[in-house]
Amino acid sequence: MKGRKYLAALACAAMLAAPSAAFAESTDLKLLANDNQIWGADVDQLAYITDAGRTMIPLRNVCSALGYDTDWQSDGSIHLTNDEGTVDVTLQVGSTDYMNAGTAGHFEVAPVIKDNRTYLLARDFTKLDGEVYWDGESRTVWIAQGDDTRYQIVRGQILRLKDARVKELVLPEGYSVDTKGAGYPLVNMDTIDGVTYLGILTQNNNYRDKIPLFRDAGDSLSYVADIYGCARFTIDGDTLYANDGAVLAGGWDYEVNPNRLSITDLTTGETTEKILDFVVNDCTLSMQDGKLIATSPDGTEHEVALD
Question: Is the pLDDT assigned to residue 69 strictly greater than 60?
């Protein structure tokens, strides 16, 4: 099936290897699907671990978060599809048999109904579509699906879904993700010329500081420069251009100069500031034919003189 993903064996084994006694009485799990955290009125109805130590996830909630269409029949059969046509699954409550794009398959555990919700074993979901990452210490399940590269942070670990597998990315020495703040640490991200850059709130930052911007270097993240958390930026060779960004109420607490453009030489680390004759802090920045263009929300393009 086009777009179908399979979990790396080690990650799956880790999710299910813990002894049942450690989980039998607890259901306080955190469930993520792509970029969304799945919420409910009662956490006991979201995800749970069986007495046998198997993690069960609510099918409707996960499918909704992933954008699937779900057709539920009174006989317990369920048909899952999506607009792209990459998902076409039929399964039956109480049966380990399923059909995936016309191919028969078998679950390890039959889907069950608990508190009027249908649950599927997390590892079995990877037979249909997606990847699963399990962090035992924080008791977090991440369901990741789709052909797009995705990033997620779980208990300070930066994860990337790419090429049908989840990879743990390593920060440079001296940096660690802020896990105590109220906000989500991944505060800025953009892909420029096929390279993804991530602005991450680390333990050395606060909401008045610039934060480190990292480059996805494959197996790890490499430091690029410091920018404001809400900044728009672009990179041309060894030069980083960034504005101050927009400060949201209750969010970043630094003084914005709406006309300020920061220019950083990535070889020396030196940053200079240029005050423009137009408001640039809400503009997106891009290079076009060797020229720096600032595009305002209404589509107006400003060519920035760099001399």
Answer: yes
Residue 269 has pLDDT above 90, yes or no: yes
Residue 236 one-letter amino acid? D
What pTM was computed for the model?
0.78
Please, what sign has the CA dihedral across residues 220, 223, 228, 234? Answer: negative
| Mean pLDDT score of the chain | 82
In 10 A of CB 156, how many CB atoms? Answer: 16
From first CA to last CA, the distance across the chain in angstroms is: 53
pLDDT in tens, 22-41: 333 345 678 888 877 775 54
Q: Are 264 and 247 in contact (CB under 8 A)?
A: no
Q: Give 133's strand partners.
A: 142
Between 34-38, 165-169, 173-177, the lowest mean confidence (pLDDT) is in 34-38
What is d(CA 13, CA 11) in angstroms, rounded to the nearest whole number? Answer: 5
Return the bridge partners of 89, or none.
80, 100
For 93-249, where are the E strands, in sequence order?
97-100, 103-106, 112-114, 117-121, 131-135, 140-144, 150-154, 157-162, 165-169, 186-192, 195-200, 211-216, 221-227, 233-236, 239-243
**Mean of pLDDT values over 47-58:** 83
Q: List strands edge to edge, sheet with 186-192.
A: 186-192, 195-200, 211-216, 221-227
When pLDDT is cut at 50, 70 and 90, the band that residue 253 belongs to is low
Rounded to an integer, what is the distance from CA 9 to the centroid of its chain?
21
Inter-residue contact 201 to 229 (CB < 8 Å): yes
Strands across the sheet containing 291-295: 284-288, 291-295, 301-304
* Three-class SS of 174-204: CCCECCCCCCCCEEEEEEECCEEEEEECECC
> 110-116: long-range contacts (C-beta < 8 A, 24 or more apart)?
111/59, 111/78, 112/56, 114/45, 114/48, 114/56, 115/42, 115/44, 115/45
The pLDDT of residue 2: 30
